[in-house]
Amino acid sequence: MAALFVWLAMLSGAAAESVTLRCKMRGPEAAFWGPLILTVEEDARHVHIDMLERHPGETFDYWDGALAPVRTGKIPFGMEPPPVAQFVKFTPSRIEVGFRAVDGELLHWAWFNRSALRAHGPACHWHSLWGFDLADNESGANSQQ
To answer: Domain boundaries in the chain?
Structure first.
């Protein structure tokens, strides 16, 4: 019920300009997950991820400060995702998303190049902390709150 309230509150906010782009995944599991379609609303501090090509119907939503499930689309295997503490951070060079367990343990941290949002900008490249050979970047993720 609380997650529904958070979701409805976010939807009722002022309409933010959004940018949609195709983002190539990096790492050994990229072929399985395929490219992502991202919709970024900077003013709302929201990133929506759609996995149209390899996993139609699977979507994820990251809202900065939300305590809600990240997986918002089709749920594989009928599993109900738990609420997690989400974050979205805009730095000069990249946009970071992720979530922590309610006890603060980092469960996922990912980022893509912010420059891809510009008209005629470079291609978007998605990097992820889990399973994509980026464990050496974990120290940067631990600074996220």
So the answer is: 21-141
